[in-house]
Amino acid sequence: MRLLAALVTLLILVGTSTGASAHAALISVEPASGSVLASAPKAVEFRFNEAVTPGAIQLIDGAGRARDDARVTTSGAGISVAMPPDLPQGTAVVSYRVISQDGHPVAGSVIFSVGAPTATQPLPNADGRLDVLIWLSRIGLYLGLFVGVGGVFFGRWIAWSMTGMGMPRATLLIGIPSAVVSLGVLGLDLLGLPLAAVVTTAPWSIAFATSAGPALLVAMAAMLLALMALSRAWYARVFAAIALAGVGLSLAMTGHAATASPEVLTRPAVFVHGLAVAFWIGALAPLAALVSKPTPAALPLLNRFSRIAMPVVVALALTGLTLAIIQLEKPSALIETTYGLILSVKLALVLSLLVLAALNRYRWTPALAKDRGAASALKRSILLECGAAFGIFAIVAGWRFTPPPRTIVPETPLAIHIHSDKAMFQVLVSPGKAGMDDFVLQLMTGEATPLKAKEATLTLSLPERGIEPMERNAELGPDGYWHVRKVELPFAGRWHARIDALVTDFEKITLEDDLEVAPP
Amino acid sequence: MSKTPWLILMATLAASPAAAHVYLEGKQATVGGSYKAVFAVPHGCSGSPTVKIRVQIPEGVIAVKPMPKAGWNVDVVEGQYASAYDYHGNKLTSGVKEVVWSGGKLPDHNYDEFVVSSFLTDSLKPNTTLYFPVVQECEKGVSRWIEIPAEGAAHSREDKSPAPGVKLLPKP
C-alpha cells in the first residue's frame, strides 16, 4: 500500500505536461500504451476519473486495417473494448473518443503490440475547420442569449418600451441557428466525423445524449420565447421573464463550470452568473439606442437601470469569482494554463467593462441630467461596453477547447518498475516518446523504504538499432528523487535501461530492464 | 594471412582480463590459511594520477596488516565483524574493515602494487571468488572497482568496473 501511495504521489509529482485535452481524464488503461504483449489481449480496459459515455472507439489492427468488430461495453467510469479473436501480430491502435459528464469529449489513443511492433500510425485528429465552427457557433449562441434575450427582458421589464429592439432581434435570429449548429458540430466532434457527415443522424443523436443537448434545446426555447416577447401580446412580459430564466438554466445544465464539484454551489452560481450577464449586457444595445435620440423618459430610465444594475453586477462578480476559484484551484494557474490565460483576458475585459459602467453611472448619467450634450459621450461609452462584451464572448467561447486546471491530470508518462530482492527502482519517463525525455528515478530498498544513494547513473541503449549504452548521471532533486533531464532518445523502440545506485563507497546496486519508447 | 598471431593476441587478452583494471595479483588463495593480497594498479583514472587507494576487507578476512609503502600513508578503518572468528585461540569480533593508502601520487604511466597480509577464515566458501572492492581516487575523478557479479556467475563482459577477486581453494 505504501508503495502504491508512493507511486501515485510520484505520478502526480512528475506530471508537468498539460496533455489532457478535455475534462474527464483517463486514469489507466490495460494493457498500458506502448506495451508489447506475447499474445493478443482479450480486451482493452479503460478507466476514467468519472463516468463517461463512449462516442467513437476505433481499432486499427497490426495489419493496419480498421476493424469494426471490436465490441465496446461500458460500466460507469470503465470502458472495455473486446478485441476480435483474430487480432494479427504487430502494433494495434485503439483510439477512443468519449463524452465526459460535462458534455465535453475526451480523445486519445492506446498503442500496444502483439508479438513485435510494427509501424502503425495513430489516427489524425479532427480538422481545424470544425474547431472554428464550434467557436463561431458558440459566440453566436452567446450573442443570442445575452444580447438577444437580455435585450428583450430589458425592453419588457426595465424600459417598458420596445425602443432599440433592433439589435436584440438580430442577435436572436443569429442565436437560434447558432444553437442548432452548436449541436451539430458537437456531435461531429464527439464522433470524430468530417463536416460532411453533419447530414447524417449519428452526430445529432450522440449530441442529444450528452448534457449539452438538452441545454442547447433550453437555450433555443429561451431565444424563441424572447422573439415572441418582442410582439405586442399580453403574454410578452411573462415570456421575456421565462426566457431570461432559460438563459441561466441552459448555462447551468452543462459545461465545465456547472459540473464542477460541489454542484450545489456551482450550478446555482452559473445560473445567477448567466442571469446577471444577460441583464447587464442585454441592456447595453437598447440603452445606446435610447440615448442616441434622447427623450424626456431616458433619464429616469437610466437612473432606474443603474439602481438595479448595481446589485446585479455585485452578484455577477461574486459568482464569477467563486467559479474561478473552484476551476483554477491555485492563482498560478491564471498564467500557467490556457484556461487561466483565457480567464485572465476575460477578467481584464470585465474590469474595463466595469470602469466604463462606473463612468456611465457616476459621470455621464448625472451629466445628462444637466446637459443634453453628454448624450453622445454616454452613447460612445455604451458602445465601448458593447465592444468589450463581445470580446468577452469571443474569449469565453475559447473555453470550449481548454480543460479547467482542476481537471488536468498529468499525462501518464512511461513507467517501468524494476525489482530485485535488494532494491526496487521505479523509472518514469516523460513524455516517454522518441525525442527529448526526462527521467525520474525513484530508488527504494527491497522493503519499499527510500534507498539512500550517494550517486545514481542511468545507462540507456537500444540494441535493436545498434545504439550502444549512453551513460548519464542523475541529480538528486529536492523531491527526494533522482532526475536525469533532457535525455535524447533518437528512436522509438525497445530501449534497455540500467540504473546504478551507489549506496556506499564500495557498494553499488544495479538494476536493469527494457522500456518501450513510443514514436514521437 | 595466418590466423595464429590473432589467436595468440586474443588468448593473451583473455588471459589477462584485468589488464585495464585494478586487480589482485595471484589467481588463487586457500581457505583457512594466510593470504597476501597484492593489489595491482596499472593506471590512473582516465589518465589522471592515482592519489588514494581504498580497499574494503570482505567479511571472513581477518588479521589484516597492510604493508607500509614509501611515499604513501597507510591507515586502517576498524569495525565490528558480522560474527566472531577464532584466530590462534583468540576470539576476534572486530578488526580492520578498510585499508587506505593516501598522500602518494602514482602517475598514469606507472604501475604499482599495494599489499595487505591477511588470514582467510574457514567461514569462507571454497570454490567461490572472494571480492575486495576497491575505490581508486585520482587527482581528477574516481574509479570504483566495486562490481560484484551475482553469486555463482563470473564477471560478464558488460561489467565496466569489476571488483578485484581471488578464487578460493579448499583447505588441503
Automatic annotation (TrEMBL), chain A:
The keyword Metal-binding applies. Residues 23-114 form the CopC domain. Gene3D superfamilies: 2.60.40.1220. This is CopD family protein. Residues 301-399 form the Copper resistance protein D domain. Its main location: membrane. It comes from the Bacteria. The chain crosses the membrane at residues 139-159, 171-198, 204-227, 234-258, 270-292, 304-326, 338-360, 381-401. GO terms for biological process: copper ion transport; response to copper ion. The keyword Signal applies. InterPro entries: CopC/D, CopC_dom, Cu-R_CopD_dom, Cu-Rt/internalin_Ig-like, Ig_E-set. Residues 1-22 form the signal peptide. Keywords: Cell membrane, Copper, Membrane, Metal-binding, Signal, Transmembrane, Transmembrane helix. It comes from Bradyrhizobium zhengyangense. GO terms for cellular component: periplasmic space; plasma membrane. It is found in: Cell membrane. It holds the Pfam family CopC. One of its GO terms (molecular function) is copper ion binding. It is a multi-pass membrane protein.
Automatic annotation (TrEMBL), chain B:
The keyword NAD does not apply. It comes from the Bacteria. InterPro entries: YcnI-copper_dom, YcnI-like_sf. Residues 21-168 form the YncI copper-binding domain. Residues 1-20 form the signal peptide. Pfam families: DUF1775. CDD domains: YcnI_like (cd08545). The keyword Transferase does not apply. Keywords: Signal. Residues 153-172 are annotated as: Disordered. This is YcnI family protein. It comes from Bradyrhizobium zhengyangense.
